[in-house]
Amino acid sequence: MEYRQVGNTELRVSEIGFGCGGNAGLMVRGSPTEQRRVAERAVELGINYFDNAPDYGNGVAEENLGRVLKELKLRPVITSKVEVRNENLGDIAGHVVRSTEESLQRLGVDYLDILQIHNGPAPSPPPLEGRSYTQLWIEDYLRPGGALEGLQRVLRDGKTRYVGFICRGNDAYQVRQLLDTNVFHMINVPYTLLNPTAGMARPRGLEVDRDFGAVINYAYEHGVGTAIYSPLAGRFLTNHIVAGGERHALAGARDTASEAYRRHLEMARALGFLMREGQQTLAQAAIRFILMHTGVTVVLGGFSALEHLEEMAAVSGTAPLEPELMARVEMVWRANFGCAGPPPPAGGG
Predict the structure, then answer these.
(1) pLDDT tens per residue, range 54-81
(2) Sequence-ordered list of residues with C-beta below 8 angstroms from that of 156, at least 6 positions apart, any chain
(3) Where are the alpha helices (DSSP H) in 113-180?
(4) Residue 129 needs a FRET pair 20 to 30 A away by CA distance; which of 89, 120, 314, 349 works?
(5) How many alpha carbons lie under 13 Å from residue 168 in its C-beta half-sphere?
(6) How far is 171 from 195, CA to CA, in rounded Å?
(7) What is d(CA 31, CA 64) in angstroms, rounded to the nearest whole number?
(8) Cβ density class 214-228: b for 16+ within 10 Å, e for less
(9) Is the entire prediction scored with pTM above 0.90?
C-alpha cells in the first residue's frame, strides 16, 4: 500500500481508503462477523483511512465501525461528517457541534481526524425538503452562526483536527470561495472515467450532467487534500455490472429499468477495452486512472464484500494507465461515449 500526504497537514493516509457508505452496504447492513472480517483485512492490506457519516444508516455505520475498531484495538485516521437539513438552519453552528459529539460517541473516540460538512456549497438556497442535505447555500456556510463557525468551534474544542466539505458539481466557484478561507484541509469529490471534470477541464466533446470545474487542481495548489468518493460511478465501472450482473445483495437498490441506468451502463461498456482478462478489471483501471492525478489523496472504496476490497487494494502502487489506453479513453470522451447529450443523473455509489 502506498501513502499520500493530506494537503499541507502531517496526516499520511493510504491511497485506498475504506468507505462506510450505505450504497455499498457492508457497514450498514452487513453482519458483525463480516464487517470485522473485511475491516481487519483492510488494515492487513495497509489501509489506515476510514470515511464515515451519520447519514450512513442513520448512525449505524458509525456504531459498527466503532465496535469493530474496539474489537481490533485499532485507531486509524477517521473522517466523519455533519448533514445540515432544513430543521437545522436556525442554528447551524450549534448543530455542527452537537452532531460531532454524537458521532464521537457512536465511534467511541475522543476526536475525529477530519470533520466534513456533507452538504456541497450552493450558489442559491437549495430546496432542503424532508431529509435532504446534499447542498447548502454558500451564505449558510459563511454567515454568523453558519457551518464554518460551527466547524471552528469544534476545532477550538479539540473535537477534530481538521475540517473539510463535499463537492456536488456545478459548484466550482463556491468551492473556491470556501478553500480561499484557508480553514479547510480535505474535500470529497467524484472523479471518474465517466466524468473526469473534477480533475481537468471538461474534455472537448464530452457532455456531463454536472461539471466539477477542476476543483482537485485548485485544492492541490492550496494545500488541500482530496478524497474521491463513488470512484466506480455507482459500481457501473465493474466487470460484473458491465456484463449485465446484479448489484450485490448488501448494496443500495438501483432502478435498472431507468433511462439513467441504461445510459450509464452504455457509457461504462464503451470503456470495456480497459479490461484485461487475468491482468486488470475495469474497476482496477478506473482506480489507476484516478491515482494518476497528483492532487488525489485517497480513493474511497465502497466495499460490499471482501473481494471488492482486495480488487481495489491491489491497484495501489501500480503504474499509471498506459498512454495508448489513455488515448483511447480520450477518443471515447470526444465522442461523448457515442451518446447524444449529457447523461441523466445516476445518483451516488
Answers:
(1) 999 999 999 999 999 999 999 999 999 9
(2) none
(3) 138-142, 147-156, 172-179
(4) 349
(5) 18
(6) 15
(7) 10
(8) bbbbbbbeeebbbbb
(9) yes
